[in-house]
Design a protein that fits this description.
Blueprint: E1 3-6, H1 22-35, E2 39-43, H2 49-59, E3 66-72, H3 75-83, E4 88-92, H4 97-104, H5 108-125, E5 130-134, H6 143-156, E6 160-165, H7 179-192, E7 198-203, H8 210-219, E8 224-227, H9 241-250, H10 263-274, E9 291-292, H11 295-303, E10 321-322, H12 330-339, H13 343-346, H14 349-362, H15 371-388
Parallel strand pairs: 1-2, 1-8, 2-3, 3-4, 4-5, 5-6, 6-7, 7-8, 9-10
The structure holds 3-hydroxy-3-carboxy-adipic acid and copper (II) ion.
3-hydroxy-3-carboxy-adipic acid binds at residues 11, 14, 70, 90, 92, 134, 136, 162, 164, 166, 202, 204, 234.
C-alpha cells in the first residue's frame, strides 16, 4: 500500500513568511494523524530550539504516524534529532557533480564517506530508527552517482531512498526526464545489487507538475509520496495533500485508508495559521470546488449532481452547493430559496424571475452573493415591489 509522508511542518514552514508555533504544530500533527498519513516530518531541530521542542512534543503525543526529523548530513544534527526521540530520520546530501564541485568542493568518494558515517552513527544509536537518505536534487544528478550513494547508504542502514525533484525539473512522458524513469531505474539497479529499499518521491511544483509527477511515480511503483497541506513549501511548493489523496482513491487506492472528512478543518486551520488564503477554485479544498453556478449546470445538478461532477463531495464530509450571480438561471434561485426555507415563494415564477433580475444587477459589484445573508433581503425587496406593482 502507498504511504504518505506529510511535510507541512518542515517543507511547508519553508514557505516565506510562514511560522507555526509548537502548539500549532501539535494540532496540525494531530489532524494529519486523524486523516491517516503514515509519516509526519516535523523539521530540523538544529534550526531552532522551538523546532526541537515541537518534535519532542509531537513524538510523545501518542500518534499512530511515525514522527520524523529532517537533518543535514552531520553527526551533531543527527544527535539533536535522536534527542527528540524520533521514529524517522531524513538525511539529505547532494551527489550532483555541480554541487559537489561548486558548493562543497569535495569529490564523490568524500561525499559518500560522509553519508555513510552519519547513517552508520544514527543506526548504531537507535537500531529501529527508520532512516531515509535523499540525494538532494536527485533528478539533476548523474544517475551513477545516485546509485552509488544510495547503495552505500542502504548498506550503512538506510531503509528509504528518496528521489527528490528539488527544482520541479521532471516531466511526465519524457523518455529520461520523467520521475517514472527515475523510480524504475533506481529500483532496478538497486535490486540488481540485492537491495530492496522503499522508494520515496518528493516533487516540487515549479512547473505546476508536482501532482502529475507524483502520480507518475506511483504508477512506477514508488512506496512513499511527500505532500504538504495547501502544497506549501519552498518557491511554488510541493504536492498538495488533499489533491493527492483524491487522485490515489481515483486510481484505485482504498477510500477507507484515509479519513478525508478532517481535511476541511485541517486546511482551514493551516490557512489561518499560515496567513495564506485558499484560492476559491483550489481543487478539493477550495470554497468553489463543489459549487455550481451557470444556469445549465445548476439545472442539471438539481437532477443529479454527478452530471457536472466527477468527484463525490460526501467522502470529504461536504455537500455540493450553488452560487448566485450573473450566470444564474431560475433553477438556482428556486434552489437557493428552498435552501433558506422559502419553498412557499419558490413556486411563484414571477417572483423568481424578479429575484433573478435583481441578483444579476447585484452581481455586477464583482463579489460573491451570500445566500444566507443576502437572499432574504433580496426576496423582501422583490416581494414588496411585486405587491406595489
Ligand atoms: C530542502 C530540500 C528538499 C529536501 C528533501 C529531502 C528537496 O529544502 O532541504 O530531504 O528528502 O526538495 O530536495 O526539500
Ligand atoms: Cu523540498
Amino acid at each position: 500500500m502507498i504511504k504518505i509522508l506529510d511535510s507541512t511542518l518542515r517543507e511547508g514552514e519553508q514557505t516565506p513568511g510562514v511560522y507555526f508555533s509548537p502548539k500549532t504544530k501539535l494540532v496540525i500533527a494531530q489532524f494529519l494523524d486523524l486523516i491517516g498519513v503514515d509519516i509526519i516530518e516535523v523539521g530540523n531541530p538544529a534550526v531552532h530550539s522551538e523546532i526541537a521542542l515541537a518534535i519532542k512534543q509531537i513524538a510523545q503525543a501518542g500518534l499512530q504516524a511515525k514522527i520524523g526529523a529532517h537533518s543535514l548530513c552531520r553527526i551533531d544534527n543527527v544527535q539533536m534529532a535522536l534527542d527528540c526521540n524520533v521514529d524517522f530520520l531524513g538525511v539529505f546530501f547532494s551527489v550532483s557533480q555541480k554541487r559537489l564541485q561548486q558548493d562543497y568542493n569535495i569529490c564523490l568518494e568524500t561525499a559518500i564517506d560522509k553519508i555513510v558515517e552519519v547513517i552508520t552513527y544514527a543506526k548504531e544509536q537507535k537500531p529501529d530508527l527508520l532512516i531515509r537518505y535523499t540525494p538532494e536534487d536527485t533528478v539533476r544528478s548523474p544517475i551513477e552517482n545516485v546509485i552509488e550513494a544510495a547503495t552505500a547508504a542502504i548498506k550503512a542502514g538506510a531503509n528509504i531512498i528518496s528521489i527528490a525533484d528539488t527544482t520541479g525539473y521532471t516531466t511526465p512522458f519524457h523518455p529520461h526526464r520523467s520521475i517514472y524513469f527515475y523510480v524504475k531505474t533506481l529500483k532496478e539497479e538497486l535490486e540488481n545489487r540485492g537491495l530492496y529499499p522503499q522508494i520515496e518521491v518528493h516533487c516540487h511544483n515549479d512547473k505546476g507538475l508536482a501532482l502529475a509527477n507524483a502520480l507518475d511515480a506511483y504508477r512506477a511503483g514508488a512506496n512513499i509520496i511527500d505532500v504538504a497541506v495547501m502544497g506549501l513549501g519552498e518557491r511554488a511548493g510541493i504536492v498538495d495533500l488533499a489533491e493527492l489523496l483524491i487522485n490515489l482513491i481515483d486510481m484505485g487506492e482504498e477510500e477507507k485508508n484515509w479519513q478525508l472528512n478532517y481535511l476541511k478543518d485541517l486546511y482551514d486551520f493551516v490557512s489561518e495559521h499560515s496567513h495564506i488564503l485558499i484560492p476559491p477554485h483550489q481543487p478539493v479544498t477550495g470554497k468553489n470546488a463543489f459549487t455550481h453556478y451557470a444556469g445549465v449546470h445548476v439545472k442539471a445538478v438539481t437532477k443529479n449532481d454527478r452530471l457536472y461532477q466527477s468527484l463525490n463531495p460526501e467522502i470529504l464530509g461536504i455537500k455540493s452547493s450553488v452560487a448566485l450571480g450573473m450566470q444564474s438561471g431560475c433553477s438556482a434561485v428556486e434552489l437557493a430559496m428552498k435552501q433558506i426555507g422559502r419553498e412557499d415563494l419558490a413556486k411563484n415564477k414571477e417572483i423568481v424571475a424578479k429575484i433573478l433580475q435583481e441578483i444579476k444587477e447585484i452581481s455586477k459589484r464583482g463579489t460573491p452573493i451570500h445566500i444566507e445573508k443576502e437572499l432574504p433581503e433580496i426576496i423582501e425587496r422583490c416581494t414588496i415591489k411585486q405587491l406595489m406593482s
